[in-house]
């Protein structure tokens, strides 16, 4: 029979040992191709759901790539369990690729190779794809129904990490004999002696009228570590916050109903969305979404020790609801900030935000607005008036273009100027057209594989190839590198001397455009100093005042 490649798959949903699953799928495949066939290469996906298309499975995609390799070393592929390999309509989207590269596909369900011209074989494989999809949907429905009843009737803890303020305690042997035999036990939430009091404090202060940030600030000031700081396994990406409390952490605690002593399940649910609505073959991606409160599953009775009363929790939710209803939408007045996007906070490196106060433009840094960090690390607010910055900037720009510095400025600009923006735009458009042509050619190849009339597809391909050739010509390097000559820069600087002279009286929009064109960068220090640069190298230090 020749050389074969083997493909198999096992997902985490199956809760199977990958080694055992691979072995029995491989054994079933060998039974089908013996005695003349030999498996020379294996492709086995681990932890990939059957609903994921082959192109998004690491090993499945690698196998498809190998089909296009003339020196691949095998002429057929054998699959031991088609229900694990194909889901829904995946067979109809994948098998034409095998046919195109003249690679036969063997499955036990048809007793050998699949015949591309057999309607019976196509029907059998489509049937197994539908059965695979149905089996997965039945498992999901059955599991969700079982978990809902366990949460509502038994009040069972269904896994996951315990909420802040609790730890996991032992609740006895598992009621399933097979799981109990392996030592699995039930778990229950128990108050954590070190953090339970913090949860009570948060609820009490919030109900008494304290805001989220005020609560976070108080906890941080008292040296109480945040949930991620107390337990490093939570949100490892927030380790840089050094254990300070955020408004989000306080809000999450206030909105968690399990602090009332009841078990609550189904607050979130995994939903599947199309990865690309224009290319359904790419399949779906899973996203977690919050469910409506009416869909939450509450236990019939309390299941663990409460940290707050049901009345306290209800009162806290009423505060959130009232705050949302009290918000009135206002039309925002638009103001022009001359240095928008150009002022950077020296303390944290973030861009300072424009703020309009007392009929004047300010720039402020409230980093971190969500975190209660001590003022010795970062002041609560760093701010500076715009009219304290612009005179120093304009004065410095004027010095750059005076007679003593004009030669140095021209040299700096000549080193810093890159290609002409128009040339850059032209090249970008050409690259985009080239990518679009390649995408169309790939889709036309798929159309050929799907059985579209070759004559029609050939006309499409010819048109796209002409457009692709034009794009390639546009991307060829030019004789000029698009950089300004010394004479052009000298003339440009001569014009800028006049622009700097009228900056103070120019329209705000025009003045802002000049700062942007000069690639102005301002680093502001909370002691009133600022560093200004324009272009790649020019830089100065000024003391402009301001506030912290």
Main attributes of the structure:
Rossmann fold, alpha/beta, four-stranded mixed sheet, 548 residues, 17 helices, five-stranded mixed sheet, Hect, E3 ligase catalytic domain fold, 43% helix
> Helical proportion?
40-55%
Q: How many structural domains in the coordinates?
A: 4
Spans with pLDDT under 50 lasting ≥5 residues?
325-330
Q: Tell how many strands the DSSP assignment holds.
A: 18
Counted by DSSP, the helix tally is 17
Q: What Rg is obtained from the alpha carbons, in whole angstroms? A: 33 Å
Rough shape?
Answer: flat
* Major β-sheet profile: 5 strands, mixed
CATH homologous superfamily classification of the largest domain: Resolvase, N-terminal catalytic domain
Subunit arrangement of the protein:
single chain
How are the strands of the largest sheet arranged?
A: 2-1-3-4-5
The average pLDDT is: 81
Gap between N and C termini: 80 Å
Instruction: Enter the CATH topology name of the largest domain.
Output: Rossmann fold
DSSP strand content: 15-25%
Structural class: alpha/beta
CATH architecture of the largest domain: 3-Layer(aba) Sandwich
CATH class of the largest domain: Alpha Beta
């Amino acid at each position: 029979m020749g050389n074969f490649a083997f493909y198999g798959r096992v997902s985490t949903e199956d809760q199977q040992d990958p080694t055992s699953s691979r072995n029995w799928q491989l054994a079933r495949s060998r039974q089908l191709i013996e005695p003349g066939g030999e498996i020379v290469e294996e492709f086995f996906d681990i932890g990939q759901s059957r609903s994921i298309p082959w192109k998004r499975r690491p090993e499945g995609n690698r196998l498809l790539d190998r089909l296009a390799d003339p020196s691949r070393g095998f002429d057929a592929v054998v699959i031991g369990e088609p229900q694990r390999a194909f889901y829904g309509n995946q067979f109809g989207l994948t098998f034409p690729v095998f046919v195109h590269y003249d690679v036969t596909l063997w499955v036990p369900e048809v007793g050998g190779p699949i015949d591309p011209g057999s309607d019976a074989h196509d029907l059998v494989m489509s049937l197994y794809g539908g059965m695979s999809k149905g089996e997965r949907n039945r498992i999901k429905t059955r599991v969700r129904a079982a978990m809902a009843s366990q949460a509502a009737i038994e009040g069972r803890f269904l896994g996951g990490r315990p909420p802040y303020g609790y730890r996991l305690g032992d609740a006895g042997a598992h009621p399933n004999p097979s799981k109990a035999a392996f030592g699995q036990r039930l778990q229950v939430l128990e108050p954590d002696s070190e953090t339970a009091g913090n949860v009570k404090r948060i609820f009490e202060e919030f109900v008494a009228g304290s805001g989220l940030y005020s609560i976070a600030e108080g906890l941080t000031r008292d040296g109480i570590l945040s949930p991620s700081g107390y337990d490093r396994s939570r949100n490892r990406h927030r380790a840089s916050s050094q254990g300070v409390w955020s408004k989000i952490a306080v809000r999450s605690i206030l909105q968690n109903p399990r602090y009332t002593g009841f078990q609550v399940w189904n607050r979130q649910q995994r939903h599947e969305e199309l990865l690309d609505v224009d290319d359904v073959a790419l399949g779906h991606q899973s996203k977690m979404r919050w469910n409506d409160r009416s869909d939450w599953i509450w236990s019939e009775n309390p299941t663990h020790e409460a940290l707050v009363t049901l009345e306290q929790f209800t009162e806290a939710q009423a505060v959130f609801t009232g705050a949302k209803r009290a918000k009135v939408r206002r039309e925002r007045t638009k103001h022009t900030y001359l240095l928008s996007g150009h002022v950077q906070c020296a303390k944290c490196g973030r861009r300072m935000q424009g703020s309009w106060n007392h009929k004047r433009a300010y720039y402020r840094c409230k980093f971190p607005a969500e975190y209660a960090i001590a003022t010795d690390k970062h002041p609560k607010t760093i701010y500076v008036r715009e009219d304290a910055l612009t005179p120093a900037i304009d004065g410095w720009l004027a010095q750059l273009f005076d007679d003593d510095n004009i030669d140095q400025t021209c040299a700096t600009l000549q080193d810093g100027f890159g290609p002409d923006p128009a040339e850059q735009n032209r090249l970008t458009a050409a690259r985009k057209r080239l990518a679009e042509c390649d995408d169309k050619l790939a889709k036309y190849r798929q159309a050929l594989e799907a059985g579209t009339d070759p004559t029609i597809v050939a006309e499409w391909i010819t048109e796209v190839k002409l457009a692709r050739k034009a794009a390639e010509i546009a991307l060829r390097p030019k004789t000029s590198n698009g950089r300004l000559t010394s004479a052009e820069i000298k003339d440009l600087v001569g014009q800028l001397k006049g622009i700097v002279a009228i900056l103070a009286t120019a329209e705000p929009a025009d003045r802002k455009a000049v700062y942007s064109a000069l690639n102005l960068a301002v680093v502001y220090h909370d002691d009133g100093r600022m560093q200004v640069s324009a272009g790649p190298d020019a830089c100065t230090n000024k003391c402009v005042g301001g506030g912290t």
